[in-house]
Amino acid sequence: MDDSESFITEEEATTPKKSFWAHLNDLRTALVRSVIAIGIALVVCLLMADKLIWVLEYPLSRIDMFEKPKPTVSFLIGSTRLGPYAVTPEQFPGIKPDEAPQLVFQVGSAKVGDDQVATLKLLPPDQSGAPTLKIRLHNFGPAEAFFIAFHVGIYGALVLSAPFWAFFMGQFFLPALNIKERRLFFRWIGWSVALFFAGVLLTYFGLLPLALRASVEYSHLLGFEALDWRGDEYITFVAKFIFGMGLGFQFPIVVLLLVKLGIITHHHLARYRRHVIVLCFILGAVLTTPEVITQVAMAVPLYVLYEACIWIAWYWDWKKRRSEQAATPEA
Prior knowledge:
The chain is of the alpha/beta class. The protein has twelve helices and six strands.
């Protein structure tokens, strides 16, 4: 009797097998419950859409985190702020070459005699640490705000309801596994979830601000202004980039699973390095937006993970050979 049979309990052995239609009904029940959970989460996310949008806008505040601060000038007219605009000490002689003040002028008016004249007042320095490069998001249609809220709600609902639909789908699949297979399943699922969130966090705090800044600089290189963006395009870009990187980080799970099944070895992985580089760029185009910036931002981490898979596969092979040598009696 092999190892998997030794882990089958008496209850599992005596449980009557279900028919095909019974399994199909169980699958339908799991799917319906999952859809209901996602629907409830969608309603919750729509009620807090403004907070979710603030989370997606946060990378804009880190868009110049690797750049040396530059002196800027902003103009405040009522509740509307124009700028900040980068300036040079030659344009504003009061700025010292080694300083990078964030100057804010308030535009107002005052009555002088019978005339109303414009005034310009220098406000105290801004100590909030706001970025010197300010991207403004706009809606250019009456229905865009509703579409943005719905798109953000969908992404948020999938994440918020993940424990529930994963539990419902697990109720359908897990009864088909024995105890040993369940342990392996939960171990691989645990690594899959960890890699997914590693990809999301790496993108959110590191790659996304760099990609946004690179997009602005490339627009300036082409002679275009890039400080005003469509809100729906920005939200779509950020959401696809974040979730695409999370899915892309499942690549090592697939590779190592093929190694465990004996379909490939570390020799195969090392042989097809050049092909994998192309595959990483293809995944960058499919899982995120089809742009050079996002493709490179995704391809580099994926290839680093692939190299890690080669070393892990080599270690597994070395460990297996060592155990076989220890089990083989000496002549």
